[in-house]
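Z., the sequence and structure:
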Amino acid sequence: MTARAKRNRRTLTLVLLACLVVSLICVAYPIYVIRPFRHQGARELAVALVVARFRPLTTVIAALTAILAVIGYWRVQPLKWSRGFTAAGAALVIGLAFLARVNIYELMFHPLVRPSFSAARDVKLNGAEMVLAVRVGGEARAYPIRSISYHHIVNDLVGGTAIVATY
């Protein structure tokens, strides 16, 4: 193998690794920062939102670049096992491009559409536990914060009026 072929192989490997790192950051960083029950600083939240906004385009560019890098790598690399690693890396970058389009929070925090209720005397709440209370007309509901903190939204009908309780 010539020095030029080795240099091309090294360059293409670095390009593929860069595509993988960029794609991982685009997918993982917003999830890490925006995850619930964690304090987010204003600057890191702003960065995470910008990354989330541009990650679909960024990951598609990274996937196309990774495919081109693998094609170039296969031209200069005769070893099949080495080709397999580059193909697996490109497949991972392509997979991350698809994952970049999934809003994990919509999957995790779906609204509670049909809440069930018990009479206040039948409920065992910790003395320090907080509830979100709603009264419409003569009907009242109490939504424990620990339940709402997972779903974030409860769609309900109280006193004949449709409400959305959120926390």
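Residues 16 and 66 are 5 Å apart (CA to CA). The chain has five helices and four strands.

Let me know what you think.
H.
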